[in-house]
Amino acid sequence: MSEGTFGTARRHDARKKKAYRDEYQRDRDRVLYSSAFRRLAGVAQVAAVNEQLVLHNRLTHSLKVAQMSRRLVQHLRYKSSEAGFPDGSGLNEDVVETAGLVHDIGHPPFGHIAEEVLDQRLAQVSGLEGFEGNAQSFRVVTKLARRKEEHMGLNLTRATLNAVLKYPRLKPRDSAKSTALWTDRGHGEKWGAYQTELTDFDWARKSSLGELRSANAILMDWADDISYATHDLEDYFRAGLIPLHHLEVDKERIFEHGHRRLKKLKGFNEYRFQEQIDVIVKEFGRSLESQFWETRENRVRMNKITSRHLTRFVKAVRLLDEPPYVEVDQDSQYRVAALKELTWFYVIDRPPLAIHQEGQKRIIGSLFDRLFTCLAKSPTSPKIPIQLRTIYRDIKRDDEAKGTFEKNKEARCARAVTDYICLLTEAQAVDLGKRLEGRSQSSMFGTWFN
């Protein structure tokens, strides 16, 4: 796919309009204006979004992933100078930025812990593959978000949809995993689209090579890792949870924890990982004076460290003359893994968050079960929120998915409930759950749903 040719095609609109925006810029605006994107302000990145501390939520995280994605392409454009990008790479700043905005748009309230619950529920339904956040994001922009009555989705260009497909394959029937090395950014182990979006998937992947990611998708994925490794780390240093000024005491435990978690990755080298752990322990220890983020000195020094990391990770990408057209320096990938491990060690795999997540699992599980029961019993009941009824109706109207849902009411109800939950904020999910369980002290007045 080359920039500016068939990559600008849209499935539902072949008209060429002369305007101040090109087709890729239209994609970006369509995502930014969608309610599905706005609701990410109410979804956690790691911890709950209602904390008094100013932490990243999925919206601010997505904005930074989009910005970093754009900078990566700009860096490559600057480095390529007069030579330009390789023919067929399709690299484009607006395309990769839009992919960054979209990459988490389908993730449910409470993030990955809710994904597990939904996957367990859907895996028990005949005809459905389970749940995958990346596949749900693809479903949102191709089916659930609406701009026009005559077709579903945001009607994004082929190039943008291909960039959104971080894992460009359907769920393997044999659950086979990729045999590529973990540092090979051209491949990934997960899957990125449901069978119900097969037509959109095939259209987006036209002229792509097998399960190889597009160059834009690779850069978006790398930008996601960069943001996780830098901005999330700042959050939890500010919150007093990660003692960046004094990592030395936990250095060996950090390494062992990371090694247990990452050793399953094909080609993972524990010595290179240990080397990067040592580097960042020394870097933070030399630079930060104390655990208190709010001292002027620490703020300045932390900003300098983050800036150095961002600069290094941007420069870590290089152009290739053949697919997938870009690669990422391996040392930088190990550095990012080491930085991400600090959040895993001090925040994610700790009782305060783990106990909180246990409650979140119950919220999502109970919400799914109650909505499913109501919908299966009577899809037109006033007990069903109007938006959920609309999603259920539109599934029946989706000609491309008839093979999955036409004679399978259970699958249709389960998919509709899942789609609905994935369009809620965390506060909405909690409130609706309480109302369905009879534990809410709120009245019928001022409700957010209808």
The strands making up the biggest β-sheet line up spatially as 1-2
Count of individual beta strands: 2
Mean of the pLDDT scores?
91
Shape: globular
The fourth-level CATH homologous superfamily of the largest domain is: Hypothetical protein af1432
Main sheet makeup: 2 strands, antiparallel
**In the CATH classification, which architecture of the largest domain applies?**
Orthogonal Bundle
Terminal CA distance reads 44 Å
Would you tell me which CATH topology of the largest domain applies? Hypothetical protein af1432
Sketch the topology as an H/E string, one letter per element.
HHHHHHHHHHHHEEHHHHHH
The DSSP helix count reads 18
Low-confidence runs? 1-5
- Overall structural class, as computed from helix and strand content, comes to mainly alpha
Radius of gyration: 22 Å
Percent range of helical residues: 40-55%
Strand content: under 5%
CATH C-level category of the largest domain: Mainly Alpha
How many separate structural domains? 3
Region (Disordered): 1-21
InterPro entries: dGTPase (IPR006261), dGTPase-like (IPR050135), HD/PDEase_dom (IPR003607), HD_domain (IPR006674), PHydrolase_assoc_dom (IPR026875)
Keywords: Hydrolase
Pfam family, one: HD
